[in-house]
Every structure is written in C-alpha cells, then in structure tokens.
Design goal:
Elements: H1 6-27, H2 37-70, H3 72-78, H4 81-105, H5 113-138, H6 144-147, H7 153-158, H8 166-189, H9 199-213, H10 226-247, E1 275-281, H11 302-305, E2 312-313, E3 317-318, H12 324-333, H13 341-346, H14 350-356, E4 360-365, H15 375-378, E5 385-387, H16 389-392, H17 404-414, E6 422-427, H18 456-482, E7 490-496, H19 517-520, E8 524-527, H20 535-543, E9 549-550, H21 551-562, H22 571-574, E10 592-595, E11 608-612, E12 615-619, E13 627-630, H23 647-657
C-alpha cells in the first residue's frame, strides 16, 4: 500500500475527530439535537390549535366558571342523572353557538365575518350579561315565568334590570368587555380553514335556531345554562305573542315595573319611639284565626295565640281585592285599584315613605318573586334588607316558594342588623295553594295529604293544617323578637293579602273568583308593647275592633305609626289614598272599590264590587245583573237584595266600571282609557 498524498494526510487527522465527535454527541443525553423544520412546524401548529380551541371554548368556560362560583353545590352534586344530562346538553348546545359565531367572526375574508362578530357580541352580552346580573339580584335566572308578562321588546331583552345599580352595571360591562375580547382573540389566534367556506354561516345559523328551540329547565333547580334559559324564554314569549295575534286576544295584564313619584324628605314624628313590622300572610281566612287572645283557642293559629295576649283584633277587616297583586297594591300603596295605569304604577309604597323619613327598611318573603313577575313591584324599593324564596332555598318551588319556617329563620338571623327605627314586612306564603303542611303535626282530622281543593271536610282540614303549619313559623319569629330589646319597641301588624273560599258561592276559584266575604274578609290584629302607643291611639284602635274597616286603612295606619301621616309633604300623596288611620277616630265613609282586575293584575274571570257601610254590590263574570248584600245582617251573603237594594252603589259602580257588566270588560288591554271618566 502506498502512502497517502500530502493533501490526504492533512485531511485524514481532521476526519477522524469529526466522526468521533458525532458518535460522542449521539451517546450523550445532554447534547442538543436540532429539530427538523417539519417537527418545528408540527409544534407550532399544535400550539396554534390549542390556542384556537381555548378561544372558541372561552365563552362556555366563562359561563361554567360563573355557574361554579354562584351555585357550586347544585351544579356538582345537586342534579339527578336526568337533570345532569340536560345541563351537559345545554352547555354543549351553547358551546356550539358561541364557537360557530367566533369562528365566523375570525374569517376575515368572509363577507359574513362582521355579522358573526356582531351577533356574538350582542347575543352573548345580552343572554349571559343579563342573566348574571339578574341572578345577582334574585338568586335565580330570568326565565319564561317573568318574560311571559313583559310588555315591550326592551323589557324582554333587558329583564327590566335596574341599570343604575352598580352591581348590575358592572356585570353587564364585564360581560360586554369579555365578548369583545373574545372576538379580538378569535381574529388573532383562530385561522379558519379555506375548505367549504360557505358552510360557516350555515353552521352559525343552525346553532342560533338550535339554542332558541333547545328545551330548558327554567323552574326550581333550573338545570340548564343561563343563556339557554334566556333564549328559551324569548322563543316561548314570541310564540305566545303570535298566538295572541291570531286569536285577537291580548295578553292578561300583569305586574309591571313601577316608576314611583319621588317622596321628599319627611320628618317622622311618631307619638312614641317605635318600630313597625307587618306580618303578612297569604290566603288566610278570618274564621280560622284567633283574632284576639282566647284560652285554649281551638282555631288554626293557636301557636301564636298565647304569645300575644294584649293584641287588638279587627273583626270586620276586608281586603279590596281577592287576588294577591291587587291586594298588595291596596295595602302597600293605599290607592284605589281602578285608578289609571300611570297613577297606579307611580304611587309610592310604604317602604319609600319610611325611607324618606330616615327609617331603615326591610322586606323578607318566602314567596317566589318569579311568579307573575312579582319581583318588578319591589325591585326598585330602597331596602336595607331583602330576602326572597330563592335566597332562602335555591330550588324554591315556583308557586309554593320556600318554607315559612326558613323565612322566620332568616328574619331571626338578620334581626340584629336592623337599625332603629325600622319598618319591615315579613311576607309568608305557604298557605297559598298548593299549600304546605306538616303530616307529623296536623291537628285537624280527617285530612287530605295533598292539595285536592277546598271542598269537603278533608279539604277544609287540609287547608287548616296548612294555616297551622305556617302559624308555627310565625310563632317562632314572634317569640324570638318579643324576647329581644328591639322587639320590646316594635309594633306588630298582622293580616293576610286576601281570604280563601270553600266554594260557598260556587266560586270559579278559591280566591280571585269573587269578592264575596269568604274571599276578602281577612284576619287582622295589631300588637303594641306597653309604651309604644299613645293613649288616644290605643283607644282608637280598640274602638275599631268591630267597625267596618279596610286594608286601605291599614296602609294609612302604618304611615301614622311611622309618624309621617301628618307631614305637610304627604298631603299630595294622601289625596290619592282611600283609607284613614285606625289610630285616629275618623272612618272611611265613601264607597270602597272591590275587584280582582286592575292595571296591576287582570284575572281571566273578572269580577267587580263596591261597598259602603254594610252594603255590598258585586257581580261575577257570569252575572247578568249586580247583586246586593248586607254583610252585617247576612254575613254568609245568602240573601240577594237585587240592584234595587243598593241604588246608590249601583250608580257608583256604573261610573267606576262603565255601563257594562264585568263579563264585557274582560280584556283591559282593549280599554286603554279605562276606567271611564
């Protein structure tokens, strides 16, 4: 073998180390290996896909995070298998909607990109923003139960939220900012593929149609995502409006948002230092109530009987309406229920007068404020303390509400936080159908074990057992507060919104069916600790025990107890009020309106009446003429004196209700100028 050339000899020593270095590098665990361009592209694409997926899923993650923050126990463990499946299905349906709209918005070359961005921001901000703000106020989501009664498109979209409240405005702004941020992120991080570009708007359109038709759980547990409940409500409302237009029958009048006249600053001058608490029942008859103390009272309110031996009962107290919404308007505002709509919705309520006088205010209720959109009537009140059924129990029944016992517990919990002087309302509701009773503590036998109406002995006993159960809850609260220092300075006013029939007159319903006494004569008493009433006030109250009185008078009485009835600034408000304080000697002399239909609420079978003294004129939807009764001479209203028996009241009724009978005035919405002037 010959020797290598000089050039080869010079290269050979260099070649060997290069091979050795390569082998050493391959054997070293720490030596870096430069990735290929293909591998780098795969990593970049993978990261891009994850970023895009995160952006497209961000809206649903935002909703889910808020759900876990607001109702974690219910979401994680509260639903049964069927409702869990429903919730997951609604979450997936909403996720498809938001992802498809963001994907469309990211398609910068598509003519639908701006439309996709606009729809995403609007739909997400409205459905999610409104729902989160609504839940902050009411601990429930805005659903068809509230939507079905709204009057304007804006009310339907905005849920009539009080936008001036910082907590509401903050929720809406945060959701809007998040929606805009999602669109910006989608256009930066999402790269839509060029394949089948025409398919994108169709997917988004189908997703929009889908969310408006996806079934939703909108009551009690609400086992659907908030945006699905919102879209379901809008779709159902639209369907109802179409049916209404086809049948030419307007929707029934229901509670609408109030726009109260501002109450100027009032100087409260009560005769004695005191607080005032209204204990308000639902659907409670006077004849099952221990109105005043009796030893071993056999009636359904025996639990509270022995607690308040000095209470003053009012045996001829009547509500002005047989339906809750109107009765509460009469009681809290004191105005005539057949006044015009603007005047009814502008009348201040008791809380607003008390607040103007510098009193602390509170409203606690076991009623579900979603029923009949009742929340609108109290939404804008200046309340220092509030709790509704959904605050007491997240899965509160839509009609029954939370338990009255839980309501008493909540008031007991909040009691020490009240600042004296204060005006508060504690509103119980378990006597209202379907009624709640305790099978282990039901003294009235034989009884039904569930709501089957009020007929027969078992039906009456079931009703009385429900009254007894609620009274036990009231007794718990009364016993507590009377043992506290504040309670010794607190006047208790007790009544019911209306009464309940046993179908004595073949009433169309057990309440709202008529204005016979079984539906409007209500239990009422006032208990004032020693030193909280002036002598002349107590004399006037005791004198009123057997006099004909009205819940309009209770409204005036509570204003007098607060100490603002004589304030000069009250004069213009008092001109619209019907009642007079029971703490004064004067009594109402003019005819008083009775009805279950007004601009506050309209019943499907309207009825009307007028009462002056002991004479009552009334008619139901099926009557061809008015009926007249003397409620003192004929307390069961069995003897119809005919229209000739109440000639003066007949003229009043025709003036207030028009020349036609109630059956011809079924739909107030066709009579915008009603009542006739």
């Amino acid at each position: 073998m010959g020797e290598a050339s000089e050039g080869e000899a010079e290269r050979e020593p260099n070649a060997a180390p290069a091979v050795g270095q390569l082998e050493a590098a391959r054997g070293s665990k720490d030596a870096p290996v430069a990735p290929s361009a293909y591998a780098r592209r795969r990593v970049v694409r993978s990261r891009a896909r994850w970023r895009a997926a995160l952006v497209l899923g961000a809206p649903s993650l935002f909703v889910l995070a808020n759900e876990l923050l607001r109702r974690p126990k219910l979401i994680l463990t509260g639903f049964d298998r069927l409702h869990r499946m429903g919730y997951v299905g609604s979450l997936a349906c909403a996720a498809v909607l938001w992802a498809s709209l963001l994907y469309l918005a990211a398609s910068r070359r598509s003519r639908f990109a701006e439309l996709g961005a606009f729809l995403f921001v609007v739909l997400f901000s409205l459905s999610v923003g409104v729902q989160l703000a609504f839940r902050t106020l009411w601990n429930a989501y805005f659903s068809i139960d509230a939507l079905v009664f709204v009057r304007t498109p804006w009310s339907a979209l905005s849920a009539d939220l009080p936008l001036a409240r910082p907590v509401v405005l903050a929720q809406l702004i945060v959701t809007l900012a998040f929606a805009v941020g999602c669109v910006v992120a989608a256009r930066r991080f999402v790269r839509p593929r060029r394949r089948l570009p025409a398919l994108r708007p169709w997917v988004a359109a189908l997703a929009i149609v889908g969310v408006f038709n996806f079934p939703a759980s909108f009551r009690n547990g609400q086992s659907s995502t908030p945006e699905l409940i919102y879209f379901h409500g809008l779709a159902t409302m639209a369907h109802d409006r179409v049916v209404t237009l086809r049948t030419h029958e307007p929707a029934l009048i229901r509670v609408e948002r109030r726009h109260p006249d501002p109450v100027p600053r009032l100087e409260a001058k009560p005769s004695r230092p005191r607080n005032v608490v209204l204990l308000l029942q639902e659907s409670q008859r006077a004849d099952v109530t221990c109105m005043e103390w009796k030893p071993r009272c056999p009636l359904a309110t025996r639990a509270t009987n022995d607690l308040l031996p000095r209470r003053i009962g009012f045996f001829q107290m009547r509500a002005g309406a047989s339906s809750t919404a109107i009765a509460l308007s009469n009681l809290w505002a004191g105005v005539d229920p057949v006044d015009t709509q603007p005047r009814l919705l502008s009348a201040p309520l008791l809380w607003e007068y008390a607040h103007a006088a510098g009193w602390d205010t509170a409203y606690w209720t076991s009623q579900n404020m979603m029923f009949g959109n009742s929340r609108l009537y109290v939404q804008d009140l200046p309340l220092g303390h509030y709790a509704g059924a959904n605050d007491l129990a997240p899965d509160a029944d839509w009609l029954l509400g939370a338990t009255d016992d839980s309501l008493s517990e909540r008031v007991i919990h909040d009691w020490e936080s009240l600042r004296e002087p204060f005006f508060a309302v504690v509103h119980y509701c378990n006597i209202h159908r379907p009624r709640l009773y305790d099978p282990a503590n039901a003294p009235f036998r034989p009884t039904h074990t569930s709501d089957r109406g009020t007929g027969g002995d078992k039906g009456k006993n079931y009703y009385q057992n429900a009254v007894f159960a609620s009274d036990v809850a009231v007794a718990k609260l009364v016993s507590f507060l009377r043992a506290t220092d504040k309670g010794k300075r607190t006047v208790l006013v007790y009544t019911s919104d209306h009464s309940e029939s046993y179908r004595e007159h073949e009433n169309e319903n057990d309440h709202s069916g008529s204005v016979y006494d079984e539906e409007i004569r209500v239990p009422t008493w006032i208990d004032a600790p020693i030193g909280t009433l002036a002598p002349d006030e107590e004399v006037a109250l005791r004198k009123a025990r057997t006099e004909l009185t009205w819940q309009y008078d209770l409204s005036a009485t509570m204003l007098d107890l607060v100490g603002v009835w004589d304030a000069p600034e009250m004069q213009r408000f008092k001109e619209r009020m019907v009642g007079l304080p029971l703490t004064r000697r004067d009594r109402v002399k003019q005819p008083v309106t009775l009805t279950n239909t007004s601009w506050i609420w309209e019943y499907v079978e309207p009825n009307w009446g007028v009462m002056q003294g002991s004479r009552k004129l009334l008619a139901t939807a099926t009557d061809h003429a008015y009926r007249c009764f003397d409620v003192l001479a004929d307390p069961k209203e069995q003897t119809d004196l005919g229209e000739a028996g109440c000639p003066e009241l007949l003229d009043v009724a025709r003036k207030r209700f028009g020349p036609k009978l109630p059956r011809d005035l079924r739909w107030l919405a066709w009579h915008r100028e009603w009542p006739p002037r």
